[in-house]
Amino acid sequence: EIVLTQSPDFQSVTPKEKVTITCRASQSIGSSLHWYQQKPDQSPKLLIKYASQSISGVPSRFSGSGSGTDFTLTINSLEAEDAATYYCHQSSSLPPYTFGQGTKLEIK
Amino acid sequence: QVQLVESGGGLVKPGGSLRLSCAASGLTFSDFYMSWIRQAPGKGLEWVSYISPSGDYTTYADSVKGRFTISRDNAKNSLYLQMNSLRAEDTALYYCARGHLDLHYWGRGTLVTVSS
C-alpha cells in the first residue's frame, strides 16, 4: 500500500499569504496525485488533478506541482474562504487508492 | 449539474447489515466508474471501493473485503454498497463519488453508526 504523508498537519496563516502544503508518497506514483479541499461540514471538492492539472471553476490561486514522490499544493494570496482541510490522494497503478492524513488550514 | 445523493445510513448493532444507496443525476451514469469513500468522525478520508461502468469489475479496501459489496443499476442511475458483518470501526460518513481515479463529484454523505 502506498502511504501519503502530508506536511504540515496544521497551519495558521494570514490572508494574502502564500501557502505551501506538501505530500510525499512512499513510492513513485508518477503524476497520479490529486488534491481536495474539505470545508467544515461539507464534502470534499477536487482542486487539482494529476499533480498540476487545473479544475474548471477552481480559483486560479490554487496550483499544484511535483511528480514521482514529492508534490506540492500552493495557494497564492490566501483568502478567508480557504479555511479548510486539504487532502492529497493517489491513484497510481492498482488499488488501494490512498489519501494523505490531511492538512488543516486556519486563517488568522 | 451533477448531483449525487446518498441514503440508507443509520444506527446498526455490531454484526449487523446495511445497504447504502447513491442516486445520481446530471450525468450519463453508465459512462462512469463510481466509488465509495468514508470518513470516520473527526478523521481523514478512506477509500472503500469502486466499480466499473458496466459493473463487471469491482475492488475493495482490505479493511472491508469480504464484508462489503458494491453494485450498480445503470437503468436506475444508482450505486449501492451492501455492508455486512459491521464493526464499530466501520462507523463513518459514507460518500459516493464519480470516478475512481480523480474524484470529481461527491455526494454529501450518509452516516453509518455501528454501536450496541
Question: What would the keywords be for this entry?
Answer:
heterodimer; A: about 110 residues; mainly beta; six-stranded mixed sheet; four-stranded antiparallel sheet; 10 strands; globular; B: about 120 residues; seven-stranded mixed sheet; 11 strands; about 0% helix
Task: Offer a concise description of the structure.
The complex is a heterodimer of chains A (108) and B (116). With 108 residues, chain A is mostly beta strands.
Describe this structure in words.
- The complex is a heterodimer of chains A (108) and B (116).
- Chain A starts with a strand and ends with a strand.
- Chain A is 0% helix and 48% strand.
- With 108 residues, chain A is an all-beta fold.
- Chain B is mainly β.
- In chain B, strands 2, 4, 5, 6, 9, 10 and 11 form a seven-stranded mixed sheet that branches. A four-stranded antiparallel sheet of chain B has the order 1-3-8-7, with no helix packed on it.
- In chain B, a hairpin with a 5-residue loop joins strand 4 (34-39) and strand 5 (45-51).
- The termini of chain B are far apart.
- At the A-B interface, strand 4 and strand 5 of A face strand 5 of B.
State mean pLDDT of chain B (0 to 100 scale).
97
**How large a portion of the residues of chain B is in β-strands, by DSSP E?**
over 45%
What string gives the helices and strands of chain B in order?
Answer: EEEEEEEEEEE
Largest sheet of chain B, if any? 7 strands, mixed
How far apart are the termini of chain A? Answer: 37 Å
Number of helices of chain B: 0
* Radius of gyration of chain A, in angstroms, nearest whole number: 13 Å
- Percent helix of chain B: under 10%
**Assembly category:** heterodimer
Helices and strands of chain A: which structural class?
mainly beta
The side-by-side strand order for the widest beta sheet of chain A comes to 2-10-9-4-5-6
The number of helical segments of chain A is 0
Total beta strands of chain B? 11
If you compute it from the alpha carbons, what radius of gyration of chain B comes out, rounded to the nearest whole angstrom? Answer: 13 Å
User: Major sheet of chain A: size, sense and barrel closure?
Assistant: 6 strands, mixed
Strand content of chain A: over 45%
Structure class of chain B: mainly beta
